[in-house]
Every structure is written in structure tokens, then in C-alpha cells.
């Protein structure tokens, strides 16, 4: 059976980092004798320039026909002033929506050799290993009405926090499942002291907890969660939360590691392909210079192999190779101190590939 992977390099550093990720994937496939079928699609600014739309129909179809999608990044100053339908980000949003990618997963762990890059004290970082599971297609960002209008007191504005119980159950269940396969601790984050939606969220979590007796469920109010992430980040295993809380908390948690070039993500649907991408953007300031850090994209590949293909060993090998290369002191520019020598994107790719072999 052929495992089809759609690769969407996108803009800025996207093509440089996905190129290295594809070579890494091919090396893994060779070492483990796996069949993979890689096909390329256009998204974002390059698709606007060449096809007149940020998400061409052919790209969407390619993604639908694939088992998993690897994306670089989209966007850049060139397209910033365009109307919404001609902006790169619109392509990514449309892709998430079309494929019903309702769950965004962001693992946060600290490579001990990079602990100095974190704004937090070293002793707080020990044992930090969490995943944030964020609902991605509902809540305040999508609810209607969403409008400005003239009221009796002048301008009024309304956003709507709308969820169905089924949408809540779907994401909470994923949280329980993830926790079950990790350290069996699920923290459900809400604002149940104020919001009706959060009360139903909490009731739903309680109900599901009966099906997962092996998982310890803790409820935490979102304001406290924001504080606890900084105060004691190692207490968390899996955090599950709704769209807006997850947006804010996942960026906060990402900063615990201190390096945007290191963090992967996955966006999953119920049955279609998952989308895997680094959390950083297209970094136009360093694009084309062969100095971007490809490790977030490599870690996204590891997530893809584990999540979409259940190739656990292959994923482990990639992660261990990265850990080894970092422990040996190899750095790309973003991770190194001023004046220190460092590796190019391509050299980092080669180092990680060389390090794979010892773990196969
Ligand atoms: P950014 O993440 O692209 O860059 C922020 C800073 O981090 C820059 O100084 C950049 O050089 C550095 N950086 C990012 N990734 C790096 C890597 N792998 N290696 C080394 N350094 C790295 O965020 P920014 O500057 O706010 O946005 C730039 C463009 O990217 C915008 O057009 C934005 O809309 C887009 N963007 C796209 C995203 C996506 O495709 N998922 C996510 C975030 C932003
Ligand atoms: Mg955000």
C-alpha cells in the first residue's frame, strides 16, 4: 500500500524547510522499507501569483486524496495589502475549514540542551512535556451573529460563542484519548464560573470521564491555567480547551521553550487527512538565505508518522536523532549565540539524517 503525502511548501522559508523535511521522510522510508508517495501542491502567496487564488481546487483535491498533509508556511509582505480573498492566510483557513480539521494539537517539550533559550528558570523546565488540544472550528471565532450595529446607545457590537454539545464531546474525547496514551492526566480548561458554554463543557467532560476511568480529569479556570503554565508547567500532561482559550494558551505555552523554530503542530479531522506544520510563519526576513531552522518541520513529520500512519518507531527515531544533534551542540542561527558558528538549513538536515541510522 502506498502512503500518500501531500506537501505544500508555501511561501518564504516554507520551500527551504519542507525540502529538507521531504529528504528526511525519504530517508526514513528507505531505512524502514516503507512506501511513500509524495505529491506537491500550491498554497498561499505562490498560489495567488501563479493560479490567482490562495487555495486552488487542484490543491484541495490533492489534500483530500492524501493520507496526510505537510505544510511549510504561507504569507509575506508582498500580499499584505491585498483584499481578503487574495491573501495567503485565507488559503490556510479555507483548507482547515474544508477538511474539517477540528482539533489542533501542539506538543510542548523542552530539549534539555536548549533550556537556556527559555525565558523561564531552568528548574521550572525539568519534566515539561505537555500537549495542548485546542478546538479549531467552533466557538467565538465562528459563531453568528458577529456584527456591528446601531443600537439605542449608539454603536453596538456582538460576537457569539456557539458550540453544540457534540462539538464539545468530539474534542474532549480526543483529549481523553491522548491522555490515555500519555501520562493519563487531562486538564480541561474552561471559564465555568462565568460562561454557560463552559458549564456544558464541564458537564460533558464529567460525563466522558466515566468512560475513561484510567485518566485523571482536572478542571481548571482559564485565568488560573494562564498562571499555572508559567508557575509550574511540568504539572500538565494533556490540556484540552475551546478555540479562543486554546489560541491564547498555546502561544503562551509555546514560549516556555523559547524558540519558535522548534515547535510542531497537527490539525486533525474525524476521518480525513491530518495537516502537519511548524507553528512559525514564513519568516520573510530570512527567506532564501538557507539559515531557517528546519527542526519544527522535522518534528511535524514525526507527529505525522505517529498520528496519521501509526509509525511510532519511525517517529521516535526522528525525535531521538534531533535530540542527539542538539546535545552534540549543533545549532542553526536562531538557536546560537551571536558570533557562534552555526549550521545552514541544509546542513542541519544532513546532520539529522546522519544521526537517524544509530537508532534504527
Ligand atoms: P514568523 O514566525 O514568520 O517569524 C517571526 C520571527 O521568527 C522572525 O524573526 C523569523 O525570522 C523567526 N523565525 C520563524 N521561523 C523560524 C525558523 N524556522 N528558523 C529561524 N527563525 C525563524 O512570524 P511573523 O514574522 O509574524 O510572520 C511572517 C509571515 O508569516 C506573515 O505573512 C504571517 O502572516 C505569516 N504566518 C504564517 C503562518 C502559517 O503559515 N501557519 C503562521 C504565522 C505567521
Ligand atoms: Mg495564535
Automatic annotation (TrEMBL):
Domain Isopropylmalate dehydrogenase-like: 4-352
Family note: Belongs to the isocitrate and isopropylmalate dehydrogenases family. LeuB type 1 subfamily.
Record gene name: leuB
Record protein name field: 3-isopropylmalate dehydrogenase
Residues annotated for NAD(+) binding in this entry: 76-89, 281-293
Recorded catalytic activity of this chain's protein: (2R,3S)-3-isopropylmalate + NAD(+) = 4-methyl-2-oxopentanoate + CO2 + NADH
UniProt cross-references to PROSITE patterns, sorted A to Z: IDH_IMDH
Known EC number: 1.1.1.85
Reported cofactor(s): Mn(2+); Mg(2+)
Quaternary organization: Homodimer.
Binding annotation for substrate: 96, 106, 134, 223
Domain of life: Bacteria
Keywords from the UniProt entry: Amino-acid biosynthesis, Branched-chain amino acid biosynthesis, Cytoplasm, Leucine biosynthesis, Magnesium, Manganese, Metal-binding, NAD, Oxidoreductase
Cofactor binding note from Swiss-Prot or TrEMBL: Binds 1 Mg(2+) or Mn(2+) ion per subunit.
Binding-site residues for Mg(2+), renumbered to this chain: 223, 247, 251
Function: Catalyzes the oxidation of 3-carboxy-2-hydroxy-4-methylpentanoate (3-isopropylmalate) to 3-carboxy-4-methyl-2-oxopentanoate. The product decarboxylates to 4-methyl-2 oxopentanoate.
MF-aspect GO terms: 3-isopropylmalate dehydrogenase activity
Chief location category: cytoplasm
Keyword Acetylation: no
Matches recorded under InterPro entries: IsoCit/isopropylmalate_DH_CS, IsoPropMal-DH-like_dom, Isopropylmalate_DH
Residues annotated as site: Important for catalysis: 141, 191
SUPFAM superfamilies, A to Z: Isocitrate/Isopropylmalate dehydrogenase-like (SSF53659)
Pathway: Amino-acid biosynthesis; L-leucine biosynthesis; L-leucine from 3-methyl-2-oxobutanoate: step 3/4
Amino acid at each position: 500500500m502506498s502512503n500518500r503525502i501531500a506537501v505544500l511548501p508555501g511561501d518564504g522559508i516554507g520551500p527551504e524547510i519542507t525540502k529538507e523535511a521531504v529528504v528526511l521522510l525519504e530517508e526514513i522510508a528507505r531505512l524502514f522499507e516503507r512506501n511513500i508517495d509524495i505529491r506537491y501542491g500550491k498554497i498561499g502567496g505562490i498560489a495567488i501569483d501563479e493560479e490567482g487564488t490562495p487555495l486552488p481546487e487542484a490543491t484541495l483535491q490533492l489534500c483530500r486524496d492524501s493520507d496526510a498533509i505537510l505544510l511549510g508556511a504561507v504569507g509575506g509582505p508582498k500580499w499584505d495589502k491585498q483584499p481578503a480573498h487574495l491573501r495567503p492566510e485565507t488559503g490556510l483557513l479555507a483548507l482547515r475549514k474544508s477538511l474539517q480539521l477540528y482539533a489542533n494539537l501542539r506538543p510542548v517539550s523542552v530539549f534539555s540542551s536548549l533550556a537556556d533559550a527559555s525565558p523561564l528558570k531552568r528548574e521550572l523546565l525539568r519534566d515539561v512535556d505537555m500537549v495542548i488540544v485546542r478546538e479549531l472550528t467552533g466557538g467565538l471565532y465562528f459563531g453568528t451573529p458577529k456584527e456591528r450595529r446601531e443600537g439605542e446607545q449608539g454603536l453596538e457590537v456582538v460576537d457569539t460563542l456557539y458550540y453544540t454539545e457534540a462539538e464539545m464531546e468530539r474534542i474532549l474525547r480526543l483529549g481523553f484519548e491522548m491522555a490515555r496514551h500519555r501520562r493519563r492526566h487531562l486538564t480541561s480548561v474552561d471559564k465555568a464560573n462565568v460562561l454557560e458554554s463552559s458549564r456544558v463543557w464541564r458537564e460533558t467532560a464529567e460525563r466522558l470521564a466515566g468512560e475513561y476511568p484510567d485518566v485523571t480529569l482536572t478542571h481548571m479556570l482559564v485565568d488560573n491555567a494562564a498562571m499555572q503554565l508559567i508557575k509550574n508547567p511540568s504539572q500538565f500532561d494533556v490540556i484540552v480547551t475551546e478555540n479562543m482559550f486554546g489560541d491564547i494558551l498555546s502561544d503562551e505555552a509555546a514560549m516556555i521553550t523559547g524558540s519558535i523554530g522548534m515547535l510542531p503542530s497537527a490539525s486533525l479531522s474525524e476521518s480525513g487527512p491530518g495537516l502537519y506544520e511548524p507553528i512559525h510563519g514564513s519568516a520573510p526576513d530570512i527567506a532564501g538565505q538557507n539559515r531557517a531552522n528546519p527542526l519544527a518541520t522535522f518534528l511535524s513529520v514525526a507527529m505525522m508518522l505517529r498520528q496519521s500512519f501509526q509509525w511510532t518507531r519511525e517517529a521516535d527515531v526522528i525525535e531521538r536523532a534531533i535530540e542527539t544533534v542538539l546535545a552534540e551542540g549543533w545549532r542553526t542561527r536562531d538557536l546560537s549565540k551571536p558570533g557562534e558558528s552555526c549550521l545552514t538549513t541544509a546542513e542541519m538536515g544532513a546532520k539529522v539524517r546522519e544521526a537517524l541510522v544509530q537508532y534504527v
